[in-house]
Amino acid sequence: MLDQNSELIDWENPRDFKEKYTDEETGKTETYTQSKNRVASDAVFKINASKQKLSEKDIKNLRKLDMEIIKNSVFARHGYSFKKQTYRNFFEQTDWYIPVSNNVDSELSPMEKENVALLNRFIKYAEDKYDSFGR
Question: What is the percentage of the chain residues whose pLDDT exceeds 70?
């Protein structure tokens, strides 16, 4: 599993989020854009897509980044060498990740393949939603 003592932040790809501000005196609302880094929730430490069969219920309320990490942890466990810096940063923090291959698809179990397919379906439509504190 990933190290629970580390906060998983996507430093490489900040996202722009629309924020609203309402002036209490005038009641006027303004919209502005703020750039924030995506932060994973604790769900990435609780869900292991290599050892448990996932259902829609397990992942439907997760952040997009959570689902991306859970999905890519399947590949990381098989030694996939990530090209994206974000995922390399996450998994290089662990003592079990050893990148050895550019293609590990043939090493995935049938359950892992089903979980990856399910996660891909949800990731496609997921959004990153964070409040003004980056949570």
Answer: 85
Domain residue ranges of the chain, discontinuous segments joined by +:
40-125
pLDDT value of residue 43: 83
**Among residues 67, 77, 74, which one has the least CA distance to residue 123?**
67
| pLDDT at 101 (0 to 100) | 94
Helix axes 64-77, 85-92, angle to 10 degrees: 70
CA distance 113 to 108: 6
Tokens of 58: 């397990």
Half-sphere exposure of 117 (CA within 13 A, CB side): 9
* CATH topology classification for 40-125: Methane Monooxygenase Hydroxylase; Chain G, domain 1 (1.20.58)
